[in-house]
Amino acid sequence: MPKSRKKSHVDGLGRFNAIRPAVNVLYSLLWEKVYADYENAILSTLGSFSFDKTNVEPEHAACNAVMGKYMAELYTGTLDIDEMLPTIQEELRVAGYETVMAEAQAQLDAYLAAEAAD
After folding, report:
1. Alpha-carbon distance 98 to 35, whole Å?
2. What average pLDDT is seen over the chain?
3. Engineered SS bond to 92: which of 1, 52, 64, 97, CB 3.0-4.6 Å?
4. What are the boundaries of each domain within the chain?
5. Burial grade of 111 (CB within 10 A; 0-12, 13-18, 19 or more)
6. Max Cα distance, the chain (Å)
7. Helices (H), 57-96
8. What percent of the chain has pLDDT over 70?
9. Residue 14, by phi and psi: left (phi above 0), alpha (psi -120 to 50) or beta?
10. What is the pLDDT of residues 56-110, one digit of tens each?
11. Cβ neighbours of residue 47 under 8 Å, at least 6 residues apart?
12. Which pTM was predicted?
């Protein structure tokens, strides 16, 4: 019969398989602080607002396509924003950005009016 091995906190893949009590205490204190701050939170009036793109589906898709061309470079910081911003703005304008924004604003105004009436 093989001798039993001393159990380690780490399995063969480098992951902890035992939870250390000190970490649990610190983690618990962190969440107590987070939840305590909830009582002081300022509630957003936009909490349940959701934009419905149905009326501007083609424009919305076109704007997404424009942003899709530049998103990776924007995220990685490899795009010269000073040089490209006017180009991106013009492509978004042609794609119908103002139409999408007007629809979003109209829906938001209607939402806020309904919230105020409640």
Report:
1. 40
2. 84
3. 97
4. 8-41, 53-117
5. middle
6. 77
7. 57-76, 81-95
8. 79
9. left
10. 999 999 999 999 999 999 999 999 999 999 999 999 999 999 999 999 999 999 9
11. none
12. 0.64
Q: Which helix (H) or strand (E) holds 105?
A: helix 97-117
Structure-token pair, residue 38: 């909830």
Q: Report CA torsion sign: 86, 72, 54, 108.
A: negative
> Following CA atoms 109, 110, 113, 115 in sequence, which dihedral angle do they give, to the nearest 10 degrees?
-110
The two tokens of residue 17 are 């398989």
The answer to whether residues 11 and 17 touch, using CB atoms and an 8 Å cutoff, is yes
**Closest to 96 (Cα-Cα) out of 70, 73, 64:** 64
